[in-house]
Design brief:
- The structure is a single chain.
- The chain is about 35% helix and about 10% strand.
- With about 290 residues, it is α/β, with parallel strands linked by helices.
- It has one domain (about 55-275): Rossmann fold, CATH 3.40.50.1110.
- Strands 2-1-3-4-5 form a 5-stranded parallel beta sheet, covered by helices on one side.
- The longest helix is centred in the first third of the chain and has 19 residues, at about 65-80.
- The radius of gyration is 18 Å and the shape is globular.
- The chain starts with about 60 loop residues before the first helix and ends in a 14-residue tail after the last helix.
């Protein structure tokens, strides 16, 4: 049974530089996949297929993302060699990424005692995460627990990316779960529901309804044994999706310290069950920023 209330009515990157030209995603125009303005050139990619394409116009590779990926591959190799112990593998997009990079004190206080590592990259969608998993970021790491939070960027759009449908986003999340289990079959997975967002310009009017619909379906992937689902949204927003004060930062998308504390508090009982009591909080695994 999924945890939490449902408010909603219930490489190495084979370097893309050098001899081989960077792959360019082919723009798709599948009907119904985006509500973005018709003037925008959109790359509506299949969220169940690994893709390195990121935020550059036309689908060209974002070198900053390439560098982050390569850094994470290096961290994975160190973990596989036993020099960087990782029991708690945090995976996702900017919401995961910013926890360690912008709220380090909160991260260390709440997660530091479980040998954590933050593998989130800002802007990632399921297809980007699939690429990272399939290209070295989890090879030989063997974490005990993987915390996964992905999907919000599939349901929103910007000047380059069109939004995926709810159904396709859910399929993308399932593809990520399958990829994680293939690489780390002994790890337990804590699946975090897509969080509410009140940002403007990047979200369709129906974003809250889409988040709720997606979470309802994502929750079904939990077996309450090896995969558990946690929906934080009743603690972050009202029944209409309006954020409670102080939960998110000024962009109304990324958690503030208070939002990350809500996330940590919801995970602690499960992490204690799966990992035991945390040791004295220590510095997190060394990783590139």
């Amino acid at each position: 049974m999924a945890l939490g209330y449902r408010i909603c009515a219930v490489l190495s990157l084979s370097l893309l530089l050098g001899a081989a030209a960077a792959p360019v995603a082919t723009p798709q125009t599948t009907p119904g996949t985006s509500t973005a303005p018709a003037t925008a050139r959109l790359l509506v990619e299949d969220p169940t297929k690994a893709s390195p394409a990121r935020s550059n116009a036309g689908g060209t590779i974002n070198n900053g993302w390439v560098n982050r990926h390569n850094g994470f591959v290096t961290t994975a190799k160190a973990a596989a060699a036993g020099t960087v112990p990782i029991d708690l593998y945090m995976e996702g997009d900017s919401i995961t990424d910013f926890w360690k990079s912008r709220f380090a004190a909160n991260w260390n206080r709440n997660l530091g005692g479980w040998k954590p590592a933050d593998f989130g990259i800002s802007g990632d969608r399921t297809q980007n995460l699939l690429y990272r998993i399939e290209n070295g970021e989890l090879d030989g790491v063997n974490p005990k627990v993987i915390v996964l939070n992905i999907g919000t960027n599939n349901l929103a759009w910007n000047a380059t990316y069109g939004m995926n449908t709810v159904e396709d986003t859910v399929k993308g999340v399932k593809a990520v779960i399958d990829a994680l289990q293939a690489k780390a079959p002994k790890a337990k997975i804590l699946l975090i529901g897509i969080m509410p967002r009140n940002d403007t310009g990047k979200t369709p009017p129906e974003i809250w309804q889409n988040i709720c619909k997606a979470n309802e379906q994502i929750a079904k992937f939990a077996d309450d044994k090896t995969i558990k689902f946690v929906n934080l949204n009743d603690k972050m927003a009202d029944k209409d999706g309006k954020l409670f004060p102080g939960i998110m930062g000024s962009d109304n998308l990324h958690p503030a310290d208070k939002g990350y504390q809500i996330w940590a508090d919801a995970m602690k009982p499960i992490l204690t069950e799966w990992l035991g009591e945390p040791t004295t909080a220590s510095a997190p695994a060394s990783q590139p920023k």
